[in-house]
Amino acid sequence: MDRVGLSWRPYLAAGILTNLDRIDVVEVIADDYFDAPRAKVAALRTLSAQAPVVLHGITQGLASTARCDARRLSKVARLVEKLRPESWSEHLAFVRGDGIEIGHLAAPPRNTATVDGCCENIEAARRIVGIAPAMENIATLIDPPGSNLSEAAWIAKIAASSHCPLLLDLHNLHANASNFGYDPVRFLDAIPVSQVTTVHLAGGRFIGRVLDDHLHDVPDPVYDLLAELAARAPQPLTVILERDGAYPPMEHLLTQLDRARAALGIGREKRAA
Fold first, then answer.
1. Is 0.70 topped by the overall pTM?
2. Secondary structure class of 56 (helix, strand, coil)
3. Are 246 and 216 contacting, i.e. CB atoms less than 8 angstroms apart?
4. Vertex 148, ends 156 and 158: CA angle to 5°?
5. Which of 62, 84, 217, 263 could form a disulfide with 226 if both were Cys (CB 3.0 to 4.6 A apart)?
6. How many domains does the chain have?
7. Separation between Cα atoms, residue 246 and residue 228, nearest integer Å
8. For residue 97, what pLDDT band results from cuts at 50, 70 and 90?
């Protein structure tokens, strides 16, 4: 069955733990625990005993022609061994080049070279960690130079070649579609939705372009996209609400989870019809 959950943040910890009856799954940032003290990891293990946990990575930089860092992947492997999460995920992005850390997720050129490089890195991640990561589309404010593939075609080629699961961030899709003038529903029709296992919902703000900042409520078009996805996907979906600051009361976040469930229901009814 479809599930709806929340991203784990220290500020939200008390609210999450007291509302696990309304939260199906919790997503944890893996990198926050790579070199954490034993007590912090033990606390996370306690959480995983109370609710399903999935891990989300942010620093691997797998979508690159450069080979991934085996030492970083080994940290993921150790954390997976300790926590036994249901899954883990990373971004279709690079975060370093020629040994220089750039400090954020960047969209690589969308071409056959980065398709091949990404697939090689996904296979390395599968080999080291034991399971392949679900790969997430990212938001970008610029169309990556050197691209000769659309974002949807690029993602579809990576999914087809690597057979990896996909994490579809619907606010990132909404932002890119708004900023670059394409139809997000046609994007859904151009990617293998049967490989989508996880969905991210978030909010952003308009700064001349839509900025994905995770500091605002999920906008209406993103719930609409969730319904469209649910109408197309035959498999159960795990939907995670991301919030990184400007935290509202927990009840407000739980209301957004309920609205996500309602959007999934609309899509499932449409699919059944």
1. yes
2. strand
3. yes
4. 20
5. 263
6. 1
7. 29
8. confident
Query: Per this entry, what is the length of the chain?
Result: 273
What is the tens place of the pLDDT at every residue in 143-180?
A: 999 999 999 999 999 999 999 999 999 999 999 999 99
**26, 114, 215 from 6: Cα distances, Å:** 5, 31, 14
Nearest by Cα to 201 from 114, 132, 259: 259
Torsion of CA 219, 30, 165, 149, to 10 degrees: 70
Q: Contacts from 128-131 at CB under 8 Å and sequence distance 24+?
A: 128/70, 128/73, 128/74, 128/76, 128/77, 129/73, 129/76, 129/77, 129/80, 129/88, 130/77, 130/80, 131/80, 131/87, 131/88
**Model confidence over 15-74: pLDDT tens digits?**
999 999 999 999 999 999 999 999 999 999 999 999 999 999 999 999 999 999 999 999
Distance separating alpha carbons of residues 53 and 63, to the nearest angstrom: 25
For residues 240 and 201, is the Cβ–Cβ distance under 8 A? yes
Task: Specify the DSSP class assigned to residue 133.
Answer: P
Q: Which helix (H) or strand (E) holds 28?
A: strand 26-29
Amino acid of residue 167: L
Residue 183 has pLDDT above 90, yes or no: yes
Spatial CB neighbours of 73, under 8 Å, sequence gap ≥ 6 = 60, 124, 125, 128, 129
Domain extent, residue 152, equals: 3-272
Residue 45 belongs to a domain with what CATH number? 3.20.20.150
3-state secondary structure 71-109: HHHHHHHHHHHHHCCCCEEEECCEEEECCEEEEEEECCC
- CA–CA separation, 90 and 62 (whole Å): 8
